[in-house]
Amino acid sequence: MYTFCDGSGHITSTLRFSKDVKAFNMFTDVKFPNSSSEYGPVLEFVRNYGWSVEKLILPHWFNANHAGIMFDAVKDRGSRITTLSFSPSHLSIAGMNVLDEIIEMSPNVVSIGMSYFTFENSTILSKVENSLMRYKAQIYYLYLSWTTTEYWLSQITRIIPTRDVLPKMGALTLYGYNDKLSKDCVTWIVAMISAPPQPSSATALPEPLTRLKRIELRMIVLPPEDWESVIRAIDLTELEWLDLHTSNFAQDQLKLLVNQIIDNVSSQARVLSLCIKKKLFEQEEARTLCATLRQKAPLVKFKLDVST
């Protein structure tokens, strides 16, 4: 095992030796550092051992030149990538084309994560639509951030009108910058986080939709009646992480969520992490609600990540 760490980036590479031959297999996970000033050693490793990478997490500053280095590393020996996370919003058309070629040379890719930080540019919007449609069957994680709700809504509902467009999606992050959401937007969110429809003989889906394991609604502002719609819609069946701490999620919503959990998952042995605002716990009722939650759902191991 060889581990390299630099800032917030890291490399974990495993060598597996056969008992019968002197050759070895090499498997690597790579996460680039968040700062472009610290990428040098990581990029150099990729230049020499990119063919061994299985899990690749690319930062927002990853550009066409970096993609070209990765392409050169895999073009002769092939690619072993199974998991890839990147942001098409920050890649040039040329860079996206190179990344597309890398993905095409990666026959084992089963999970793709995509982050979009804005749609308010026609070039970016085109890349968003092309990448979503091209890899919709493989997208596991989707991160959407916007600054103008109505524009975002009109575009995203056109590109992803229903949950079944992304059948493998298991994690969803929506970042709203404290922008108030329209009713149509709330309706779309409800559809995205709800339990997938059960196939019937008449309307059978090609394969079951993946249930969400992670939901993050960050800096989302909703009135109480819309919060009720959202909370009641959350598919708790396999959910492992629910992050609401930077939204206007308040005590009334916590009460409703606790009741939903007690009614729906109290008999399941599982771990469910809830990330909520620390300020809520300044109130006695909120602490009582959490105590009730632990008492009535004893098989559920709750991890309360209380944030500011």
Description:
With 308 residues, this protein is of the alpha/beta class. 34% of the residues lie in helices and 26% in strands. It contains 9 helices and 12 strands. The protein has a 12-stranded mixed β-sheet with strand order 1-2-3-4-5-6-7-8-9-10-11-12, covered by helices on one side. It starts with a strand and ends with a strand.
Q: Which key phrases capture this entry?
A:
308 residues, single chain, 26% strand, twelve-stranded mixed β-sheet, globular, disordered N terminus, 9 helices, alpha/beta
Topology:
Elements: E1 2-6, E2 9-17, E3 24-31, H1 40-49, E4 53-57, H2 64-74, E5 83-86, H3 93-104, E6 111-116, H4 122-134, E7 139-145, H5 149-159, E8 171-180, H6 183-193, E9 214-221, H7 224-233, E10 241-243, H8 251-265, E11 270-277, H9 284-296, E12 300-307
Parallel strand pairs: 3-4, 4-5, 5-6, 6-7, 7-8, 8-9, 9-10, 10-11, 11-12
Antiparallel strand pairs: 1-2, 2-3
Helix pairs in contact: 1-2, 2-3, 6-7, 7-8, 8-9
Number of strands: 12
What oligomeric state do the depicted chains represent?
single chain
Share of residues in strands: 25-35%
Q: What overall form do the CA principal axes indicate?
A: globular
Class based on secondary structure composition and strand pairing:
alpha/beta
Order of helices and strands, N to C?
EEEHEHEHEHEHEHEHEHEHE
Low-pLDDT segments, ≥5 res = 1-8
Q: Tell me about the biggest sheet?
A: 12 strands, mixed
Give the helix proportion (percent range).
25-40%
The number of helical elements comes to: 9
Mean pLDDT: 80
Give a summary of the structure in a few sentences.
With 308 residues, the chain is an alpha/beta fold. The protein is built from 9 helices and 12 strands. The N terminus is likely disordered.
